[in-house]
Amino acid sequence: MFKHTRFTHKHLLNNTINLISHQTKMDYKKLITYCLFFFLIFSKSMIAQSKNNGRVLKTFFKNGLIAKEIYSGIDEKYDSIKTYHITGGLDERFYFTMNNRIDGLCEKFSSEGKLQTTWIFKNGVLINRTDNFKEFNAKNKETAEYNYDNIVKTNLQLKTDPNNLGLIWSRASSRIYLKDNILAEMDFLMLKSQLEIIKSIPSEAIKYPRINQDLAEIYSRLASLYSRFENDNLAVDYQLKAVQTDPDEIRHVLNLGGTLASETHEYRLAIYYLNQVISKVPNHNFANWALGAAYLEMEQYQKAADCINLAFENEANLYIYGYGTSENDLRTIRGLAYHKLGKTALGIKDLKEALRINDKNSVANKYFGIVNDDLGDSQKACEYFQKSRELGYEKKYYNKSLESYIKKACKENASKITDSKSILNISPKDLPYIGPNPAENFVEVFNYPYSNFSYDINDMGGKSVGHGIANNKTIQVSGIPSGLYILTIEKEGKQETFKLIKK
Prior knowledge:
- The chain is an alpha+beta fold.
- 48% of the residues lie in helices and 18% in strands.
- Helix 3 packs antiparallel against helix 4.
- The protein is globular, with a radius of gyration of 23 Å.
- The two termini are 25 Å apart.
């Protein structure tokens, strides 16, 4: 949501991609087949997040709705892949030949169920793409149009130069912007595989002085894709790999902080990384945007407003270099922050403008409901909360129920409450957390009612790298290698899970 992406392609991967394009002997179609095989193997490793029903592998959003379905035969070769919108409904549908290449009529649908894009493939080769309509809002139209046009251009060029990795990178970047998720993933996985192969051969890697920078860019883009399907662990792991692979590139630190803030809701950890960006570039508009959102969630309203005001100083960049489609935009965040600071008139002005820019903004509707509820206008508050629900707020933001707000504002219209945690609407600042995080030698658990409890630390492959009993809420981690881990604690049936980053 807050990721800073560049679409000036000539500045990204130029040196490495151009050299690889001329020197590699690996055929593009073979790479695509390899990447599809890799993806199938990866998907099967997501067993904790998936349900394998015969030959259909399913992954799910946190709200319980299906995110992705992979249909394959008993020979484990693809038949088709479907992706879904987080609010429900089919998003993409692709079919495959027996040799795992896209084939036939493939489709993309809007969240309203309208046929948006069709592709015709023949044995992995794109024959035709048709955009029945284009999606953009009042702020990102120019950037969206550029990416639609760039896909048309690069597809034409790739027909005569199919192994040009520079063109594939350019197309992949536009595909990810337009949320052509499966096609973007295939392109980026192919680029990732190629660069990792070269990096693993010292005699080859020395020829490409920018290979770490270019590989880090690909990790970052893959993280963005996996965030869309709410595979948080993989998304954060890839963002952390990007930071570790190219530690001098501040954008990767920004993207890691943004993912932690907007996707995984690890606000304290997000603030840590985003403040690293701010320490180097105080007026960084993307970092201030993400920080503003994180501070708002932590109920630090003045800090939230201050950060958003800094982000506003170059607002246009958010739409030129970012995705520009977030509901949690500058005006939405500042609108609630201003209201909580007693500047309600200014807050209402911001929220009205946010809805003018995007009348489907479920977050702005929720915040308008909060404002009206605080002002004592229950009827208007009820209308805004109900509108937010109709726009899928609770499906998009799985841990933020509107139930208690609707119960209070709508009174007799309240539906039955079933989730006690949602009823309470516990503030993120009051939830259990660990610190310091990132950790070097130990972590301490806060806002947890027990001092001595069992813990287990697992790596991204699910392997336990540490377990035992905490000593006065403290867990030693000094012997664990650097990287991302999942820390689980439990006592008397009260279990909590945290993302632990070891320095």
